[in-house]
Amino acid sequence: VEDLVSADTCVCRTDEGHLVEGLEESMLETVIPRGEGDRVMVVLGEHAGRVGRILEREPERSRVLVQLEREAGRVVQLDYDAVCHYVGGHEDD
C-alpha cells in the first residue's frame, strides 16, 4: 500500500513497480510474513501504527502473537486482519 485515498480506498504498488489506483479494502488480502521474528505493523485497533515482531502464529484461528517494539516486551494477540508485513525502518530510526 502506497497511499490511502479515503478510509476504504488506496493506491498499491505491484512487485513489478506499477501503481494501481482505486483499490478498495475488500479487494485486498492480508499478507502475514512466514519467517519467525518477522516484523509487522498493527493497522487496526488500539495499537494501530505500532511495529512488532511475530512470536507465534495460530493459522487455525487466523491470529498472531506479537511483541510490540518500544513497549518493554508487551505481547498482544491480534487477528491477521489487524496486522500487515512491515518492511520499513525501526521505530527509533
UniProtKB/TrEMBL annotation:
Main subcellular localisation: nucleus
Protein family according to the UniProt entry: Belongs to the MOS2 family.
Domain of life: Eukaryota
One Pfam match: GPKOW_C
Localisation per UniProt entry: Nucleus
Name listed for the protein in its UniProt record: G-patch domain and KOW motifs-containing protein
InterPro entries: KOW, Rib_uL2_dom2, Ribosomal_uL24_CS, Spp2-like, Translation_prot_SH3-like_sf
Organism expressing this protein natively: Centropus bengalensis (lesser coucal)
Record-level GO BP terms: mRNA splicing, via spliceosome; translation
Single GO cellular component term: ribosome
UniProt entry keywords in alphabetical sequence: mRNA processing, mRNA splicing, Nucleus
